[in-house]
Write a sequence for this structure.
């Protein structure tokens, strides 16, 4: 005789919630959440049961609320516990002789595992995917890899929109991260390269994919990025002598990150970090080097609305929202519409003027010296001349020309 030890009442078809009369034990916030998740997966809830006398006999979420002991009159039913403290309801059900019940912990673990199981239909599994991502991008943190995997499940299994954030350093990425987190929507921050998107894009060919990115005039971005990365220059004597020489460090930083013309023994620590991350911290090469190779969209071939300060590029299943960071506070309605929310409240984060080096940063914006060749290259850069109007470029010119 073959005897089976059943792991759970929940199978891959969620049949227990479709074939039996389903009671939810707990008619509060968690009950509402569990009810929605059951119905989202094709199940149906018959009623709540609850010990609160104020709820008994009422209609909550369109279904009645009964006393727990009334389920003893039922035959073909299952009880799904739907409250934070599961111990008391579970003990109560045991005392009533009810065996067909499911804890909330079991429900959500099975739901989580079911999403992984369904991903096999896309011929990819968690461990193979994570191994592939790790091999191609060892620096990408494990928690971010898992978040990318979870977002893919949201898109492929739950039909949520595919939303990615990929912005050059110091173009407001942290402001958007915190602001999007507060909206409680599914998205993935890919940091400063679409490399990870290139790994998974074939899974999303039949889905609309939205990407948010940004630009900033290069000199301001280069200075801001320099200060943001300044601790990675701590292997240099200029970092320490007389408290740190910002001008000499900035000149070396530009040579190392923009021109890469320094001897290999210069800025060793920064070079190692840069090589590990595979990212340029200056904005100039971003779209050619960290965007185009992974999405096949050349943003410089697309028109950009200088007056609005933002545009949407459409290419196949891709929609790319690109904006000037200088006009971030004026584009919130357009950004919210692109994301699919009514409104987005921007929360400023990772601002140089608020950091420990804020005094030196503010002084650098006033007094730092720019080499003429570097200034000319920035003024002639693709990123400035494509994404900014002649008037904007003139303002950049007159802001920085006095620093030569």
């Amino acid at each position: 005789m073959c005897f089976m030890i059943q792991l759970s009442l929940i199978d891959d078809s969620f049949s227990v919630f479709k074939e039996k009369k389903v009671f939810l034990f707990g008619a509060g916030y968690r009950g509402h959440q569990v009810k929605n998740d059951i119905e989202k997966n094709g199940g149906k809830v018959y009623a709540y049961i609850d010990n609160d006398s104020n709820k008994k006999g009422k209609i909550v979420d369109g279904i009645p609320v009964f006393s727990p002991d009334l389920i003893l009159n039922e035959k073909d039913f299952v009880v799904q516990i739907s409250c934070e403290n599961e111990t008391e309801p579970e003990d109560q059900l045991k005392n009533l002789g009810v065996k067909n019940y499911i804890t909330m912990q079991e429900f959500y673990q099975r739901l989580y595992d079911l999403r992984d199981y369904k991903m096999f239909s896309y011929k990819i599994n968690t461990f193979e995917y994570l191994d592939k991502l790790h091999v191609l991008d060892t620096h990408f943190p494990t928690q971010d890899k898992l978040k990318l995997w979870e977002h893919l499940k949201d898109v492929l299994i739950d039909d949520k929109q595919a939303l990615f954030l990929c912005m050059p350093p110091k173009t407001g990425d942290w402001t958007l991260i915190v602001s999007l987190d507060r909206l409680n929507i599914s998205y993935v921050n890919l940091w400063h390269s679409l490399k990870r998107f290139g790994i998974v894009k074939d899974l999303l060919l039949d889905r609309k994919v939205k990407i948010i990115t940004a630009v900033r005039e290069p000199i301001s971005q280069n200075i801001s990025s320099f200060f943001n990365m300044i601790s990675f220059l701590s292997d240099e004597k200029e970092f320490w002598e007389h408290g740190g020489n910002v001008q000499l460090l900035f000149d070396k930083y530009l040579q190392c990150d923009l021109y890469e013309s320094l001897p290999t023994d210069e800025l060793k620590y920064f070079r190692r970090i840069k090589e590990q991350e595979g990212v340029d911290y200056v904005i100039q090469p971003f779209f050619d080097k960290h965007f185009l190779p992974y999405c096949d969209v050349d943003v410089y071939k697309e028109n950009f609305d200088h007056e609005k300060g933002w545009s949407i590029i459409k290419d196949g299943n891709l929609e790319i929202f690109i904006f000037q960071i200088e006009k971030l506070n004026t584009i919130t309605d357009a950004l919210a519409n692109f994301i699919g929310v009514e409104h987005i409240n921007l929360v400023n984060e990772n601002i140089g003027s608020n950091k420990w080096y804020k005094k030196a940063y503010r002084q650098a914006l006033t007094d730092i010296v720019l080499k003429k060749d570097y200034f000319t290259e920035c003024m002639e850069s693709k990123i400035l001349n494509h994404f900014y109007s002649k008037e904007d470029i003139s303002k950049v010119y007159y802001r920085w020309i006095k620093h030569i």
Summary: The two ends are 89 Å apart (CA to CA). The longest strand covers residues 209-215.
